[in-house]
C-alpha cells in the first residue's frame, strides 16, 4: 500500500496510507462531525480549498451513488479518514468511494488518528495543511507554509455556474426567484421547486440588476466557499436587492453576505462548525432545532438588541447553542432574512426545512402588500386557476 503523510502548518505530522488519488495537495485542515453524508460533504462547493477530516471512523460504507451529489463534482482539497470501507454495501451504490476519489483526483489519506487530529484543530484552530504521497515531511511543510490562507480567499467565482440556468417549479409555478450562485447545493432549488418556485440560478458575480430582472418575486443568496470579507461583488449585489425591497433569503455564505451588506462585520471562528448535529435556538419562535452546519466564518452582531442599518433594524434571529455564535439575521422593516446553517440539510437533519416555507410566505406577503399599495388597473384573470 502506498504511504502518505499529512502535515499541518505548525509541523504536526500524521503518517498513514494513500486513500483516493496519489500526489500532493494543500488546503485548510478542518473537521466534520457528520456521522453520515460524506458524499454530500465531498461535493458541497463550500468545502473548496479545505482538507476535510471526518470524525466518524468508518467512511465509504455505502459507496457513492448517482443521487446524492450536491454539485457537479467533488470540491474538497483533500480528504482524511480513519478507516475506509473495504467493500461498499448499499442498494443505491454505483461504485466505491475510493475509486470515485481517484476518478475525481481527490488526494486523501487513511489510517489517521482522526481523534487526535480533531483535538489538535479544536485547540489550535483550523490551519493550513498538506497531504502527499510523494514529498517528505520538510518538503510538504514548505509547500504548506507557502500556500494561501483561507482568510481573504475569494473562492465563490471559481465554483459557481458559468452560465445561468433554470430549475423549474414542481407543479404550478407560484413564484420566480433568482439565486445568486456562490456555490449553491442542488438540494436548495429542489426544495424551492417543491414549493412552486422557479429558480433562476445566476453566476456569482451577477449584478443587482441581473438578480432583480430574473428574480421577479425574490432573491436567494447561496452558501459558498472562502472568506465573506473577500466577496465585495456579492455584497454590492445584495445591497441593490435590499434597496429595491425585493424579498431576500440567504443561507450560510448568503447570511454572511447579507450581514456585510447591512454594514456588519464577519470574523473567522477558531475551528468552525461542520457537522449535522448543531443545536440552534430560533429566538423568534423559541424553538431549538438540530441543524446541519458548514462554516468557518461568522457574522459579528450584538445578540441582545437590534442593530440599526440603512435598511432598518436587524436582529439576530438564531443563535448557536454550543458557542453563542450568530446563526441567523432578520430585518425588522424589510423582507429579508438569512441563516448561517443549512435548511437544505444535505445531508440531514431536516428540522430547518420550514425556512424555505418562510421565504415563500415572505414573497406572498410582499406580493399582497404591493397589490394593496398599487392595485393593478385592468388585470383580468383569464387562466381560470387563480383564487380557485
Ligand atoms: N457553507 C458556507 O456557505 C460557508 C461559508 C463560508 N465559506 C464559511 O466558511 O464560513
UniProtKB/TrEMBL annotation:
EC number: 6.3.5.5
Pathway named in the protein's UniProt entry: Amino-acid biosynthesis; L-arginine biosynthesis; carbamoyl phosphate from bicarbonate: step 1/1; Pyrimidine metabolism; UMP biosynthesis via de novo pathway; (S)-dihydroorotate from bicarbonate: step 1/3
Parts forming coiled coils: none
The keyword Ligase appears for this protein: yes
GO biological process, one term: 'de novo' pyrimidine nucleobase biosynthetic process
Domain Carbamoyl-phosphate synthase small subunit N-terminal: 2-132
The UniProt record lists the keyword Nucleus: no
Entry superkingdom: Bacteria
GO molecular function: ATP binding; carbamoyl-phosphate synthase (glutamine-hydrolyzing) activity
Binding site residues for L-glutamine: 46, 224, 226, 253, 256, 294, 296-297
Reactions catalysed: hydrogencarbonate + L-glutamine + 2 ATP + H2O = carbamoyl phosphate + L-glutamate + 2 ADP + phosphate + 2 H(+); L-glutamine + H2O = L-glutamate + NH4(+)
Active site feature: 252 (nucleophile), 342, 344
Keyword terms, alphabetized: Amino-acid biosynthesis, Arginine biosynthesis, ATP-binding, Glutamine amidotransferase, Ligase, Nucleotide-binding, Pyrimidine biosynthesis
Oligomeric form and interacting partners: Composed of two chains; the small (or glutamine) chain promotes the hydrolysis of glutamine to ammonia, which is used by the large (or ammonia) chain to synthesize carbamoyl phosphate. Tetramer of heterodimers (alpha,beta)4.
Family from the record: Belongs to the CarA family.
Function field: Small subunit of the glutamine-dependent carbamoyl phosphate synthetase (CPSase). CPSase catalyzes the formation of carbamoyl phosphate from the ammonia moiety of glutamine, carbonate, and phosphate donated by ATP, constituting the first step of 2 biosynthetic pathways, one leading to arginine and/or urea and the other to pyrimidine nucleotides. The small subunit (glutamine amidotransferase) binds and cleaves glutamine to supply the large subunit with the substrate ammonia.
HAMAP family, per database record: CPSase_S_chain
Stored NCBIfam families: CPSaseIIsmall, PRK12838.1
PANTHER family: CARBAMOYL-PHOSPHATE SYNTHASE SMALL CHAIN (PTHR43418:SF7), MULTIFUNCTIONAL TRYPTOPHAN BIOSYNTHESIS PROTEIN-RELATED (PTHR43418)
Name of the protein in its database record: Carbamoyl phosphate synthase small chain
Naturally occurring in which organism (per UniProt): Modestobacter muralis
Underlying gene: carA
